[in-house]
Design goal:
elongated; two-stranded antiparallel ribbon; disordered C terminus; 7 helices; Serine Threonine Protein Phosphatase 5, Tetratricopeptide repeat; mainly alpha; single chain
Length: 148
């Protein structure tokens, strides 16, 4: 294996690097914030994604892990990064009814109108329009956020 993690002969990633990526994605999926912090500290990309385009933040958000979602957002992960199906982390959190994750994402600037379906549309469909502030809401974000 080369220093880049690629098998020079085949131009393919070394299977050990692929396994490491799978392990880090699992940390986000299971909300293991302390180990995820260590992985980011040693250089794992904050927007690492699985083959379906689900980023670490998407996996943490979808599975309801507010602390891991907050960590990733604070480390600069893209809160609006869509997966390959055009879904946003915010819409995933709304779909799963993860109120605290929704607040974390909105606090970090997630766009409620991004993706298909958008988080705003998902909130209406699931009877939870209060999760996402109305467009151009002069009163600001939902209670419990400090979204600027």
């Amino acid at each position: 294996m080369s220093a880049t993690g690629l098998d020079a002969a085949a131009g393919e990633p070394d299977p050990r690097v692929v396994e490491l990526a799978h392990q880090v994605l699992a940390l986000a999926r299971t909300g293991e914030t302390a180990l995820l912090t260590q992985a980011l500290d040693v250089g794992v990309p904050r927007d690492l994604s699985d083959p379906q385009g689900n980023s670490l933040l998407m996996l943490a958000a979808y599975h309801g892990h507010a602390a891991a979602t907050r960590l990733l957002a604070e480390r600069g992960a893209d809160v609006d990064r869509l997966n390959d199906r055009g879904q946003s982390p915010l819409a995933g959190a709304v779909f799963k009814g993860e109120d605290e994750v929704v607040r974390v994402l909105l606090t970090h600037g997630a766009d409620p109108d991004l993706g298909t379906p958008s988080a705003r549309d998902a909130a209406v469909v699931f009877g939870r329009p209060e999760l996402v502030p109305p467009p151009d809401d002069p009163t600001g974000p939902p209670p419990g956020t400090n979204h600027a």
